[in-house]
Specification:
682 residues; alpha+beta; Glutaredoxin; 5-stranded mixed β-sheet; 4-stranded antiparallel β-sheet
Length: 682
């Protein structure tokens, strides 16, 4: 018999709808039930692609005896962290404070008022490796609730004090000055792992936003070491097992320091950020490998992660056939049989061995430079590339006949905004009509299905948009719409982005705290109002909002936007300098604030081929902190005002100074290449 999750839309919640646990979705009704029964709440937070969430479900939530204990002593609530990042943030803060670490599944015990008093993550079914069994934890918490209420109350009070800090007024921690970037870069140089790339040891997560900041540093200052850190890390990731060598797309992270063995789940947001970085690297270096990786990943997005309505799905699971990574790994003999005459060459290229590199099977990766593999096998590099492409087609066909990992087919606004931005920038850089169409379909989907009256909804599935959007949703979608304006030069995308920026200020800015909160003023009241300013797996809502306001403040000449954004950056100045890996996106916004935008206005009809030539020239060039606007001249848009022209014309400006207006593509490229260094603060 199904539990109370059966009516939910989230694939993760529906996975648990037939557990013997009497799960409830998060609701006032569930909390009221805990009050009426005078029992604590057992809150379990996870997500559909989470491997250890599945493990704990199989071991504990599907076990009748464990479920009976849960139902007897608790009101049990299940939350999809992707739908409710506010709840995830609030209770992750408590989990980290109580245990010194966090992760999913997250297991938190609450008072009926929603106050946490005990927390952990995964618990095994039996005592193991110093971890208590889940049943022992359940009985211990139930006993504490009945017989040691004073201890429960003390812990809940400590958590209230912890949460109170989130409402404190934000104050400047340092100056917005060039020194900020010097200090941040010096810190990253020390932390950089020069053999395999990235920062620190295992496990390794793609440090995408930090790499994007370092690429800006190279463009601004000519720091070749900064560029080397970016290219080396991106190439090592792309040649590792963390990248799907057959189907395209990056896994969530590597469990080792070598980027070899991934945690096999594929998340939309990781790939959005990595594609955008790959596009920027191709613009900066012209390296064909970076372009190929970006195009392959976008091929995966278009093929497997796009709904008929034009929305982007959330994730692919790590597991299939009951095993992590089964879909992606290969037996050496199987490969010999499939690849035929190419087998020896491709075994060497993909690092295949009889014993394998993962549970007796092979994760495909590229352990050696392709040039060396080609030379050792007496083929040219183009011949090797042709063989790899042939092998990929063969293996992709075989893999399609395997049981696929589960798909989380909800569309989340923030993640769609991030991917829209990546697709639109790739379409502009590669001059790709297919990507242009993909970006346009997604933009129309967001306007049609996830936006109402200037507000964004968080999640969409099966024709239903639900949950009021958070700060990250509004800001990421608005930035995605701005990228559509840069791609199409259509005014409507610019206007929609500005409407969302006004909502950001009206609903998420707090005058008393002088800061952005992650939930709106009219959102559900929880035990705390979350305010997370660090860039973790995704850019924080705060850093996205700051970038949005800086861009629109520049385009529309609105000092309210820029003053709010500058104040937030001043409150983060010292943390950004000291902990740059936690503020990669914020550092990019700081670059825009301190060093200024490189403004490019292209005046001309989007239907005119000469306009297209100018926009292609911009798309092929890496320009940090680029603000591109265009179309017809509009007097109500300062960046476009007074710039009418008989022929399509580009205007390149920075630091309140402009180059000579030009309709010549070669001259425009020269102006763009000079612009970044000229804009560097001194």
């Amino acid at each position: 018999m199904p539990n109370h999750l059966i009516g939910e839309n989230s694939p993760y919640l529906l996975q648990h709808a037939h557990n013997p646990v009497e799960w409830h979705p998060w609701s006032d009704e569930a909390l009221r039930k805990a009050r009426d029964r005078n029992v604590p709440v057992l809150l379990s937070i996870g997500y559909a692609a989470c491997h250890w969430c599945h493990v704990m479900e199989r071991e504990s939530f599907e076990d009748e005896a464990t479920a009976a204990l849960m139902n007897e002593h608790f009101v049990c609530i299940k939350v999809d962290r992707e739908e409710r990042p506010d709840l995830d943030s609030i209770y992750m803060q408590a989990t980290q404070a109580m245990t010194g670490q966090g992760g999913w599944p997250m297991t938190v015990f609450l008072t009926p008022a929603g106050e946490p008093f005990f927390a952990g993550t995964y618990y095994p079914p039996e005592d193991r490796h110093g971890m208590p069994s889940f049943r022992r934890v359940l009985l211990g918490i139930a006993d504490a609730w009945k017989n040691r209420k004073d201890s429960v109350s003390r812990t809940a009070e400590q958590m209230r004090e912890l949460y109170a800090a989130s409402g404190e007024r934000a104050r400047a921690t340092g100056r917005l000055h060039e020194e900020l970037f010097t200090r941040a870069t010096a810190t990253l140089r020390v932390q950089y792992e020069r053999r395999f790339g990235g920062f620190g040891g295992a496990p390794k997560f793609p440090p995408t936003m930090t790499l994007d900041f370092l690429l800006r540093e190279w463009a601004r200052t000519g720091d070749e070491d900064a560029l080397a850190m970016v290219t080396h890390t991106f190439r090592r990731m792309a040649r590792g097992g963390i990248y799907d060598q057959v189907g395209g797309g990056f896994a969530r992270y590597s469990v080792d320091a070598y980027w070899l063995v991934p945690h096999f789940e594929k998340m939309l947001y990781d790939n959005a950020l990595l594609v955008r970085l790959g596009v920027h690297l191709w613009q900066a270096t012209g390296d064909a490998e970076f372009r190929r990786l970006s195009e392959e990943t976008l091929g995966w997005v278009s093929r497997e992660m796009t709904s008929p309505e034009g929305g982007f799905y959330s994730s692919l699971d790590a597991d299939s056939e009951g095993h992590e990574g089964r879909y992606y790994t290969w037996d050496a003999a199987e490969l010999d049989r499939l690849l035929g005459a190419d087998a020896a060459l491709l075994r060497a290229y993909w690092g295949v061995t009889p014993e394998g590199n993962f549970e007796g099977r092979n994760i495909l990766f590229v352990p050696h430079d392709p040039e060396a593999v080609a030379a050792a096998h007496h083929v040219t590099l183009p011949e090797l590339r042709t063989a790899v492409e042939r092998g990929v087609r063969l293996l992709a066909d075989v893999r399609e006949r395997r049981i696929r990992p589960a798909l989380d087919d909800k569309s989340l606004a923030a993640w769609n905004g991030l991917m829209l931005r990546a697709v639109a920038e790739a379409a502009r850089a590669f001059d790709d009509d297919g990507l242009r169409a993909l970006a346009m379909r997604n933009g129309e989907f967001l306007l049609r299905e996830l936006m109402r009256d200037g507000r964004v909804f968080r999640s969409y599935k099966n024709g239903v948009a639900k949950i009021p959007g958070f700060l990250e949703d509004h800001a990421a979608v608005a930035l995605g719409l701005l990228s559509l304006h840069a791609l199409t030069l259509e005014r409507r995308w610019l206007d929609q982005a500005r409407a969302l920026a006004d909502t950001v200020l009206a609903q998420f800015w707090d005058d008393d705290a002088r800061a952005f909160f992650d939930t709106a003023h009219d959102a559900e009241r929880l035990v705390a109002r979350p305010r997370d300013v660090s860039d973790n797996a995704t850019p924080s809502g705060t850093s996205l909002a700051v970038e949005l306001l800086l861009v629109l403040g520049d385009v529309f000449g609105d000092t309210t936007y820029t003053e709010r954004a500058s104040h937030v950056l001043e409150s983060l100045a010292e943390p950004m300098a000291q902990h740059p890996t936690a503020f990669g996106h914020a550092l990019g916004a700081a670059d825009l604030s301190i060093r200024g935008a490189i403004e490019v206005a292209i005046i001309g009809s989007a239907a005119d081929t000469r306009t297209g030539e100018l926009t292609r020239a911009v798309g092929e060039t890496y320009v940090p902190s680029l603000i591109l606007a265009g179309g017809e001249a509009h007097d109500d848009i300062p960046l476009l005002a007074g710039r009418g022209s008989a022929v399509p014309t580009a205007f390149v400006c920075r630091a309140s100074a402009c180059d000579r207006p030009t309709s010549d593509v070669v001259e425009l490229r020269d102006q763009l290449q000079r612009a970044a260094r000229v804009a560097t603060a001194t």
